[in-house]
Automatic annotation (TrEMBL):
It comes from Neptunicella marina. Residues 6-213 form the DNA/pantothenate metabolism flavoprotein C-terminal domain. One of its GO terms (cellular component) is phosphopantothenoylcysteine decarboxylase complex. The keyword Methyltransferase does not apply. Keywords: Decarboxylase, Flavoprotein, FMN, Ligase, Lyase, Magnesium, Metal-binding, Multifunctional enzyme. Residues 11-219 are annotated as: Phosphopantothenate--cysteine ligase. It comes from the Bacteria. GO terms for molecular function: FMN binding; metal ion binding; phosphopantothenate--cysteine ligase activity; phosphopantothenoylcysteine decarboxylase activity. Catalyzes two steps in the biosynthesis of coenzyme A. In the first step cysteine is conjugated to 4'-phosphopantothenate to form 4-phosphopantothenoylcysteine, in the latter compound is decarboxylated to form 4'-phosphopantotheine. The gene is coaBC. Its EC number is 4.1.1.36, 6.3.2.5. This is Coenzyme A biosynthesis bifunctional protein CoaBC. The keyword Cell inner membrane does not apply.
Length: 219
């Protein structure tokens, strides 16, 4: 039995990849398995929170007891989050959201008639930045997936997106991060930082939520 440190809190979490359609049979996506975000949803509930999980397509079962909203594209994830966010006092953006989508999704399967194929991309809305920019934002926690200069880029995202906290992982290390059962996180908040050493994602979820809760009251 976990101490109910998050009792009375309502937490909105995004998890998994997004899929951006190219034509009726193809899409662009990434290697996110959803494991980190689902571990956060399960841990938050065990610590007493009410949880809504907005998830891109994964192989995982929706965690029992949480409100689950399945989506495919970044735009659908954005719409679901914006519809839900008012009801929550914490937002954690753990999803690997596609930064771009194809400008024009083809209504018919693209044929291989040409040797070269060009696609034009347009930027997707930034869900995390949009949540943090709301007039009354929840306590907003972002993730940062970086392959180099982790601390520099994470702290830049923290400031630029006006977040309360950011959890950075080094996704160039294939033993952690995308699809692994393990991760290691560098957590930054305005004026401080803490390293959460390599561990399984379940344990890291508890550690991150405990840290979030310590900073929640000061926000
Ligand atoms: O799912 P797993 O296999 O367990 O892997 C976990 C993970 C590596 C996916 C996870 O730990 C992680 O790092 N998630 C964030 C991945 C990501 O998209 O990082 P980013 O640095 O590109 O984005 C920064 C932040 O902005 C993230 O909180 C992201 O959710 C958010 N974002 C990004 C783009 C966008 N259009 N909208 C967003 O909200």
């Amino acid at each position: 039995n976990q101490p109910q440190i998050l009792a009375g809190k309502s937490i909105l979490i995004t998890a998994g990849p997004t899929q951006e359609a190219i034509d009726p049979v193809r899409y662009l996506s990434n290697h996110s398995s959803g494991k980190m975000g689902y571990a956060l949803a399960i841990a938050a509930q065990k610590l007493g929170a009410t949880v809504t999980l907005v998830s891109g397509p994964t192989r995982l079962n929706p965690p029992a007891g949480c409100e689950f909203i399945g989506v495919k594209s970044a735009q659908q994830m954005y719409d679901a989050v914006m519809q839900q966010v008012d009801k929550h006092n914490v937002f954690i953006g753990c999803a690997a959201v596609a930064d771009y989508r194809v400008d024009e999704v083809m209504s018919q399967k693209i044929k291989k008639d040409n040797d070269k194929l060009s696609l034009t991309f347009v930027k997707n809305p930034d869900i995390l930045a949009s949540v943090a920019a709301l007039p009354k934002p929840p306590f907003t926690v972002g993730f940062a997936a970086e392959t180099h200069d982790l601390s520099h880029y994470a702290q830049d995202k923290l400031k630029r997106k006006k977040l309360n906290m950011i959890a950075a992982n080094d996704v160039s290390d294939t033993s952690i991060g995308f699809n692994s059962d393990h991760n290691a996180l560098s957590i930054f908040w305005p004026g401080g930082q803490q390293r959460l050493a390599k561990n399984n994602k379940d344990m890291l979820a508890y550690q991150l939520l405990t840290l979030m809760n310590q900073h929640y009251d000061n926000a």
